[in-house]
Write a structure and sequence with these properties.
- This protein has 174 residues and is mainly α.
- The chain is built from seven helices and no strands.
- It has helices at 3-29, 32-48, 59-77, 98-113, 116-126, 132-139, 143-165.
- The radius of gyration is 19 Å and the shape is globular.
- The termini are far apart.
- The relative contact order is 0.09.
């Protein structure tokens, strides 16, 4: 592959997948600058290994796998300072209602409470927009296992959210 072809192929990958990779990275680390660093490192590694990507249809899974590994490397090489401030909330800047923000926070917390084997496929599907086949490839599982985990994750999330909202039903509005 010539350098010009490699450059075009690479730029197409960045164009198509940057936003999805950023959303997934942000979900993983909850920090915009770290998420951007993860995406940049993912694309740097993708550039170096672009010749190994034979099947263009596997590009999304390939990039998500690289990003997951980059995130894991982040923990291998760095000790974090943890503050007393809770940092597990994503803020939706489009939301104007406090109720909407509270609901989103509850959903995110319940997702994060799922066991990793259920949480990760669900996040890849919901945040990453990955198909069952792509999730299977990213996680190194067979598709039936992925589909079972997604089903169980949704049921556990539904159950957790139902338990969460029941005590609030009798609360006065406003």
């Amino acid at each position: 592959m010539g350098m010009a072809d490699k450059q075009k192929r690479y730029e197409a990958l960045v164009q198509v997948y940057h936003k999805e990779l950023y959303r997934f990275a942000y979900w993983l680390c909850k920090d915009p600058s770290v998420a951007e660093d993860l995406v940049q490192e993912t694309f740097l590694r993708a550039w170096r290994s672009l010749d190994s990507l034979v099947d263009q249809n596997a590009a999304k899974s390939w990039l998500f796998t690289i990003l997951r590994r980059e995130n894991a490397r982040r923990f291998e090489r760095k000790q974090f300072d943890y503050s007393d401030v809770e940092q597990d909330t994503l803020y939706d800047e489009r939301s104007t209602s406090l109720d909407d923000e509270m609901e989103m926070t509850v959903v995110q917390r319940r997702i994060m409470e799922l066991a990793q084997e259920y949480r990760e496929p669900l996040i890849l599907q919901v945040i990453g927009g990955c198909s069952g086949d792509e999730i299977a490839q990213i996680l190194g599982l067979n598709k039936n296992t992925v589909m079972t985990r997604l089903y169980r994750a949704r049921n556990q999330l539904k159950s957790a959210l139902t338990r969460t909202t029941e005590p609030m039903k009798g609360a006065p509005n406003g």
